[in-house]
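Project standup — Tuesday

K.O.: blocked on the structure for the chain from last sprint. Re-posting the sequence here as requested.
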Amino acid sequence: MIVRRRGFLLLTLGVCACSLDTRHLASAGDGLAGALVVGQSYAGTAGASGGTSEAGVGVATGVLVDGCADLDTDGVADCNTTLVSNPSFSGDVSNWIPVGGATLTWDPKNALTDLPSGSAKLRASTARASAFQCVSLGGAQLVVAYANANVESVGNIEPAQAELEVSYYDSEDCSGERSRYFQTPPDAVADAWVTIQAGALSRATSRSASIALVGLKAASASELDIYFDNVMLKAKSP
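H.V.: unblocked you, prediction finished:
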């Protein structure tokens, strides 16, 4: 099915509540046959050119390769390929910067069985909060983000939502105005580890990207508590 939205052309090939396999990702010019989901997570600032997007949420599978998570199920340990520093929070939350009134602390809760390890606990009382990291990026790349997320429930109150948001910058250090961005579909599954993922093309002028662990608080809640683990940011030539 072909859908036109905000001037972008989205090809919807199917929906599956499972991990997205980046071995089948391709640029718009190459087609997207084999991709599990071509979603609507892609977004851009005014004037940004369109691109393909991949998005989905699935139950955490617990796949490990050489003691590291393999969320994209390509048989290669994510800790050897991710652009992110401290992706699995094995002992602290170093390299991640909380913003928007959030605090980010280390917690022993762990998505998989890659012990000793833990997770990053995002806590805030604001409607939206996040913690981010800036990484280098070399021009036009097909960038895909993955993470495990666990939203803590608070009685019968509507749970918070967890997202990843990736923004592209023409600067070397994520400064200035972002040129485009994409985000994962919000996940609100309470008290269970799930895998969230999305991806989109960067611009030829992109030189850095920020990846943010995002929490969205329900209006009826006083605060949010979300755990993130095994953050994977992968880039390859389109």
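K.O.: great, moving the ticket to review. The radius of gyration is 17 Å. The chain has one domain: 57-236.
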